[in-house]
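A common beginner's mistake is to predict each chain separately and then try to dock the pieces by hand. The better habit, illustrated here, is to supply every component at once so that their relative placement is modeled jointly.
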Amino acid sequence: GDSVTQMEGPVTLSEEAFLTINCTYTATGYPSLFWYVQYPGEGLQLLLKATKADDKGSNKGFEATYRKETTSFHLEKGSVQVSDSAVYFCALNAGGTSYGKLTFGQGTILTVHP
Amino acid sequence: DSGVTQTPKHLITATGQRVTLRCSPRSGDLSVYWYQQSLDQGLQFLIQYYNGEERAKGNILERFSAQQFPDLHSELNLSSLELGDSALYFCASSAAVGAYTEAFFGQGTRLTVV
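With all components supplied together, the output reads:
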């Protein structure tokens, strides 16, 4: 079945450091890929998405490129801020008979210190 | 604000009891999804409705059921509650159900079974 694997957390960085959170997936067909962010006490918010191979999703300084050859969708940001502290989820939508449901990775907790 | 409303925000109940969680999707969205977030299982898809009909089912226990009403709001019913059912339950909605579908999440209902 479909699955998403994220790097183990938690990740602790200093402000202005470079961030990478690894995400790999297994799916049949051509899934769409997403990064969601969950701030403390809140629901999930879509951060960025990519719908086909080599697409790059970007938002708020975060980027991720859909790499079909390595089945990966790693999240990167060049300079993190304290306000980026949150839980980040990689997810896929396999399309077809999955009817839009999302399969999530286990989440990566990011803490950014001043 | 995602436009998805979940009530109540918090619920504390005893083992063996039954509760109902409510979700109002974004205006115009026909599809509603329910997810369970727990520490040990992560974010798990439970069930999806589209315009009143069940479309996809995930790892939903037989003690749990859901429905979507003509006004498109949805309810998740959890019965014979066990301690292990304590979790954050999210509702999400989307306009469509294809692979490119973007889902919008509510803030969740935190259920504590004591």
